[in-house]
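Thread: Newbie trying to understand structure tokens

Hi all, I'm a second-year student working on a class project, and my supervisor (Dr. K.) asked me to get a predicted structure for one chain before our next meeting. I've only ever worked with sequences, so writing a 3D structure as a token string is new to me. If someone could post the tokens and maybe explain what I'm looking at, I'd be very grateful. Here's the chain:
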Amino acid sequence: MSQHHSSGPHTPPAKPATSPSTPSAPAPEPYKPLAWAFPFTPADKSDGGDPMTYMKALAAAEDGFYPLGANGMWHGGIHFDENTAKHLKQDEGIRAIADGEVVAYRLDSKYPEQDYQDRRHALYSTGFVLVRHKLQLPPPPPPKSDASKQAGGQPAAAPASAAPAAASKASAASAPAASAPAAAPASSQPRPGETLTFFSLYMHLMDWNTYQSAAAQAKVAQVDAAKLNMAPMPYWEGERFYRVGDKANDSQDVPKPKTPASPPRDLIGEFIQSDFKTVPEPDTPADDTANLPPPVKGIRIRESPNGKIIGILPKGSELTVSETDEAAKAKPGWAKIKTIKSGTPAAAVVGGTPSPHAPYGYVYAKELDAVVNPQPLDSVVVLKQPYPVKAGEVIGQLGHYLRYTEAKLLPAKPTRPLLHLEVFAGPELEAFIQKSRARAKELPAAKTFLEISPGARLVTELAEPDQKLQPGVKLVPLDANAKGKWVKVQPKTAAPVHGGRHAKPTYTDSGAPVWVDGSLANTTTSAIVSGWKDFPLSFSNAKSPGADFRDVFRRVDLDKAGADSTVKDDKGRAWFLVTIGAKDGSARQGWVCEQDHPLVRMCGPWDWPGFELIDNSSIMPIDMLKRYIHVTEQYLADESKTEFEASAATVNAGPLITNLEKAIDTDHDGKITALELKHAQETPWMAEAISHLVVRCESEWGGGLGKWEALSPLMKKLLWLWKTEIERIGKLQWWEQVASVEGFPKQPSPWHFHPVGIVGNFAQKSEEGCGDCAARFKKISKIILNHEGGIVDHKNDKGGLTNRGIAWPTWQKYAKEDLGVEPTIENLKALTESQAEVIYLKRFWEPKGFCQFHDDRIALMTYDWTITSGGAVAQIQKMLNSKYGAGVGEDGGLGPNTIKAINAVQDQDQLLQDIAEIRRKYYKMLVDNDSSQVVFLKGWLARVDDCLQVKL
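---
Reply by user tm_fold:
Sure, no problem. This is what the structure looks like when written as tokens:
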């Protein structure tokens, strides 16, 4: 659908004022929030953004808990196995937890086989991928003198036209999207202290042999291996070539039928010559294109990047491309054919002669399947050029890791899938968190999390009701949109009715406003009702025992809890009914206030709420093992308890066990074990505490084998087995081999995060944006492109020619800038889905802030509408003001105030229906104003219905 407003939210920003003549320092690197993603998505309808979804899944794992393993030893990561696969979509591949770049990896040619002395065999994976990430602090707000110029929060925009345009296809059409000023080139060096370099490690990945087997099976089944999530990883080094696969859907052009011209007929002469009999019609000359073969499908070959089409390379063909061609380098996404390994180019037109230049033409590489013959195998590869990855992108598949308990006398088979995931940073972490917490105090108040500190008291008692309302009183809320456990109402009584039985009663105020149970709002009392003159919750009634632990709640969860668990007082402060844990293992419930409540605060991710740093690097593995033997009393016959007491006391007195005892040792026996950790992950306050521990300890992937050989004297009769395991540990280590990577910790004693804890802290949909923005855009983009279809050039479409929703005016404006191609009609017709997504992301998604929406469905509905119609946001703003009292400007600009108002609506399901309804009315208004648009109405309304019904 085209947008033909001359002004409004799609008007390009004004040019900046002339710069002063005095030289100025280069602009700092623009702040861009890091996108985040959990490593897998839920297998059911569980909240994919809730850390508890993943903590509960981890509780099902057989072993590999953080920060203690099943053997009582320090464990710096978490395990995903066949048990967690029942809760998570692990077969879809392992996703990068944040934007970053692959810096190193190891790919096993086939799983190594561990041979034991008793002739048992066990396969295991040494494969891994290491990703570097950079977390940048948000900049401090500008000085007040500058900030005042930016008051208002939302970009100014002229009112949208009263009669927005319409078209047959929803399109990012004739009016340009509202866009922020172009980002300055990223600085090559981050500002000192402002950026944290950290790493995520994905260990025990699939071997190359399994990838090859999957590809062979897919070929037999005639299925693209990529669709089975088994495509080779693009960061692998080695011989690379491309295959024309399912992503390539171009086809030869078909010539228009050419009918040979018939000689002119002398009908009268023919009639006379036939003795005045009717002459039959001659046979129609044959169509010279009727016997042509069907069009060849594959990928177009062009004379130059996005230039004239000179051929088609059929599906199944394989080719290599030039790494040095300058024309291709100047046009991102394009590649010059170097050699065609298999397949033969066909002519651009069915029946035509293939161009002799086709074997060396240009193709759009993003529509080809990358194929790699990875080399080297079975060794650590440090990439000379790091490979960029986005949060949520698949970077590997689970491999297998069998222990001695799974080892068999029969030939070894991969029967125990496993991923070890860990996240760590170097010694600069402490200073970065301190600076981050200081920066958080400078930033606008954040409300992403509610943090309850130890000692905080919940309000568990209500004030005694001091008001009595008689029957027959109508309870009218002072705020028409008020919802919650209690609502302040104005009692009203009906005046005597005059004028017959059909006359409507007139209500007058009856006394002062009072607080009543929220379920009574907008009702008429039928019995005596108790109420309160003042708000029923008071800090003076915070009489419960102080909180034993630090508890952190996501604001989005608190808002979803329902009307009985939230309320706003006279001062507009939100109160929440929360459940916290006690040190005896019981739960406490009570109310807390977002403001002015002692030891309670609203905060954001830069406050690092709940995170505790614990330096456990002085504790040696032998002491941790001795403690485990001591607390589980697994002494051998010739061992004395006293041999282990000193080590147990040392470890138990250390900060790691001390903090774990506070968090999960409900029976206070001082015997924290992996089993307790396993079950603790199912309890919110315990899981929160575990996932927020940041522990410094030596990595199992480096530091040599000395610390492991020191355990040998404890192994006694199982020394033969332990020596075999030490041999395996040596093959798994890789730390020292990647020491040259920029930003990598030089010493193998980094700070370890619980992966769910750090992702959960930053991947929240808040004022700063949705952490998993890349994945969110991708899944919503698929729906949009499905709505848009292909090329449309309807005479009544005011946007003119569109392809994949991109209209001709938009194409003219952004083709060159965003894609590096000439804005021609031919290039618009050749637009690919991936090219369209570049424009959608840069011109519609990012500038409008759709990742800041709390609800994916409302993000889709609003995004889809804004693509189709310039007046969409203004309509939503009007509805927010009229129905929800939002008080936002009705200027058509989707700024932070409007997004905040959308997120503030408690009933997001109802809001979705409200937006759908005004969208339908809007389309019907278009048709009423311009009858030529009626041909599009059915499609528009179907599009609204699809946005309501689609599963996200």
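A couple of things are worth pointing out once you decode it. DSSP finds 24 helices and 37 strands in the chain. The first helix runs from residue 51 to 59. Feel free to ask follow-ups in this thread.
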